[in-house]
Amino acid sequence: MDTPFLDAISSISTREWVGYGQSAVRVVLIAIAAWLVVAIGNRAIRTMRTRLQQRAPSEDRAKRLETLGRVFRYVLGVVVSVVAGMLILNELGISVAPVLATAGVAGIAVGFGAQSLIKDYFNGFFLLVDDQLGKGDIVIVAGIGGLVEDLTLRYVRLRDYDGNVHFVPNGQISTVSNLTRNFAFAVMDIGIAYRENVEEAIDVIREVGREMRADESFGPRILEDLEIAGVDKWADSAVVIRCRFKVKPIEQWGVRRGFLQRLKAAFDARDIEIPYPHLTVYAGEPKQGTAPAFILRGLPGSAQ
Questions:
Q1: Class assignment of domain 12-113?
Q2: Where, residue-wise, is CATH 1.10.287.1260 in the chain?
């Protein structure tokens, strides 16, 4: 018994069957070609990444190349899939123009709703390309400082000194302060009492600096001799002498603490006063050398 379905099949001519077969073959060929392009492209990206990682001067640069490799493979997969999809739709007799128009309208709507997300990805991409920060660096971004534990196209994960973990979206990062790139400076502001001899204090500071460079523990961390800028300012209770060490990355805090500990012992040994805040009351003295006397009154109930 004939059915409408069988009637429809029997009504198809041999030429139409040949056309359908050719379209099916072309669809299969397009899919195979897209798969080959993605496979070859991914392999080329991995090969290039491996070669660049072998020549990378540091582990941070190698990790950045690995992240960029993942980004390029993702972009390649998306582009090839979109192109192959449009070619397949064209082979199936589906007009691509309405699909593109619909996709354009949907893309605009999604774009308005996901502006911050798109900004995160763009900023993250350029953070990686420009090598502004990397895993293991200590940075300040968006007003938050800490150790970079992870860096993706979406966010930067930081851990501060207290152990708190912060996730900073890349779109909020406008300025990166990298505290551990190539080298750093351990800056010390040394305060001494106004009565102390500045030259003597500088000699002691320089001596402690030489001891730090000769030390087995601190010496390898320090790149150059102690640089003494001199008297930086007159504070309320101290004369402040500024100096600094050029050190390896991430070593500035440890070197600074070690230097201040040794300098405290050296100042104590030479009786150089490290002042604490205090107030000096001065009644004033005219040019004749006389000054009014202070009238001191005892507290109620105390001896006069």
A1: mainly alpha
A2: 12-113
- Cα separation, 1 vs 22, in Å, equals 31
Q: Does domain 182-304 have CATH number 3.40.50.2000?
A: no
Q: What are the structure tokens assigned to 31, written together?
A: 């899919």
Q: What 3-state DSSP class applies to 136?
A: coil
* pLDDT tens digits, 255-271: 999 999 999 999 999 99
Q: Read off the pLDDT of each residue in 22-26 and give the average, rounded to a whole number.
A: 77
Please list the residue range(s) of the chain that carry CATH number 2.30.30.60. 133-178
CATH classification of 133-178 is 2.30.30.60, yes or no? Answer: yes
> What residue has token string 């006397």?
293
DSSP 299: P
How far apart are alpha carbons 213 and 72 in whole angstroms?
A: 46
Task: Please report where in the chains the tokens 């491996």 appear, as a residue.
Answer: 50
As beta bridge partners, residue 151 has 156
Number of neighbours of residue 234 by Cβ within 10 angstroms: 10
What whole-number distance in Å separates Cα of residue 63 and Cα of residue 67? 6
Interatomic CA distance for residues 262 and 212, integer angstroms: 9
What distance in Å separates the CA atoms of residue 118 and residue 114, rounded to the nearest whole number?
6
Helices of type H across 194-286: 198-214, 252-269
Residue where the block lists tokens 């040019």? 287
Q: With bands split at pLDDT 50, 70 and 90, how would you rate the model's confidence at 1?
A: very low
d(CA 127, CA 138): 15
